């Protein structure tokens, strides 16, 4: 995880569409970020910029791809429809949590 990636998650959690779920679960964006910070490994900012994929509908998601690339990830779990349109990606899978859970794992 990079600081820029963390900032994008926080910005996303602030969107009105997440407010009902946050209230339902008694969570706050700040509380969720604290949990994320305690459970992830932080990387320095990616040194190599990721080229803007013409299929990427939301340029703000570029930081998520850069973070995954810097971490040598083979999977991104997300509910972001803009990112999900990139699956299958040439470097990593981009799946919803439900899709991931349906897969067989060793």
Strand tally: 2
SSE order, as H and E?
Answer: HHHHEHEH
Number of domains: 1
Poorly predicted ranges: none
Major β-sheet strand ordering = 1-2
**Average pLDDT figure:** 81
Distance between the termini: 25 Å
DSSP summary: helix tally: 6
* Main β sheet profile: 2 strands, parallel
Q: What coarse outline follows from CA principal-axis ratios? A: globular
Which terms summarize this structure?
single chain, 2 strands, mainly alpha
Question: What is shown here, in short?
Answer:
The protein has one domain.
Structure description:
The protein is mainly alpha-helical. The chain has helices at 3-13, 19-24, 29-39, 62-70, 81-84, 97-102; strands spanning 75-77, 93-95. It is globular. The two termini are 25 Å apart. The mean pLDDT is 81.
């Amino acid at each position: 995880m990079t600081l820029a990636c963390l900032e994008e998650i926080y910005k996303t959690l602030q969107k009105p569409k997440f407010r009902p779920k946050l209230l339902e679960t008694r969570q706050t964006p700040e509380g969720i970020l604290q949990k994320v910070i305690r459970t992830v490994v932080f990387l320095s900012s990616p040194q190599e910029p990721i080229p803007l994929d013409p299929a990427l509908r939301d340029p703000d998601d570029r930081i998520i791809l850069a973070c995954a690339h810097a971490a040598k990830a083979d999977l991104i779990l997300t509910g972001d429809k803009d990112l999900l349109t990139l699956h299958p990606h040439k470097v990593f899978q981009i799946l919803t949590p439900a899709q991931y859970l349906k897969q067989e794992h060793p």
